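Worked problem 6 (solution included).
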Amino acid sequence: MDHSTIDLGKGNVPALFAKIFVPTLVGMIFGVLLSIADGIFVGHGCGSDALAAVNIVSPLFNVSSGIGFMFGSGASVVIAIQLSKENIKAARINATQALAGSLFIMLIILLLCCIFPIDILRLLGCTERLMPLALDYFYFTMFSCVIYMFEAVGMYLIRLDGSPNYASFCTILPSVLNIVLDYVFIFPLDMGLKGAALATFLSCCASAVAVLVYMKRSVKTLKLYPLKLNKKISKMSSRNLWSMLRLGFPVMLGEFSMSVMMLVGNRIFVRMLHEDGVAAFSVVCYLIPIFFMISSAITQSAQPIVSYNYGAGNKSRVVSAFRITLFMAVLCGALVTLLFVYLPEPLTLMFLKEDAQAYPIAINGLKVFAAGFVTFALNIVFVGFYQSIELARRATWFTLLRGFILMIPAFIILPKLIGVDGLWLAVPCAEVLTFIVILADFVFLRRCKKGEVNDNVLRE
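Solution. The predicted structure is:
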């Protein structure tokens, strides 16, 4: 296999991880930070109603992200295993199918959104007052979601192809361009919310072009392969796509769980602490995606190493990569915990004025919420590891456990038992309980030889 920059099968594992992790982390964090700046531009340049309209439409972009990451992460596992067996043609077909499959699903969603725009916006909670603004943002955003598939899937393929720096570039480019165009369209050109939507669309197009240029001119191994339409090929494509969806489904659930946390949290906070409580909770909602991206960067950086060597039967390298992710998860979780506990004031001042009634609520909340960061990171790492070694069912169940099954009841029960602190402890409690279950299952896997995974892989 022609990997001039990265040799997943023979290179030093810690060095490989670092080489993939640094650009991956930079790209992901850069995107999150600039999305915050994007919200500031809309809020200050278009007004609070415009910001509310963006929030109404935003879940659709989360859906597209989840679909893209599902195909990208699932395909990266399948392709890495194919590459480890030197099945280059199969790997190229899988890469092409991942892009085509994600685009096909998003085109169906786009069609539905164009036919029923008002019904969909009402389903998302849009009021009549916000409807004109939401519609202004809606159409460009839906076309952006389709184009975004090139970036969402492409960054996994490019990283697996041995070019993590270029994958990071494909993430940073649209983020920077979006901020520049937001400023130009909203302020000098006075295009309002339509300008913000157009900026997002053009930024996604720029990223798509960058991905396609790489796949056409710079790709090392994962060249796009022309797909043929016949009964045999269609059957094989369906089987391949199902494998990608099965393996990538936990990643999509992880994306959706963030939206569920915000949706359920907002409803419970407004019931107990009214608008000030929601404002305080919004501080966490802005900050938690940053840590989620750090944890995801750890997982995504190890995934090609783990999947490739798992497919090649290099058990010691799988274990080595897994141990690195565990260490990084604990380290990053501990650092963020200390940051939330000892520096809640400067974190809160980024979003709230000191004289705001929500300010003291947020200060206390950040300290309490910090209790779950270490287990949060460990859970993400374990789910990613199981996904990488084709234990998709376990990865899916643990994602459902932490993001839905335990978190929603925790939001309902804990405030009734311990008051306001229970609001902030709901997510940490769900993460800790999930980690206990994962740890018990991990010990079980080490002691019992199951057909799903060789016990020696986990015992070394």
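Discussion: Residues 455-460 have pLDDT under 50 and may be disordered.
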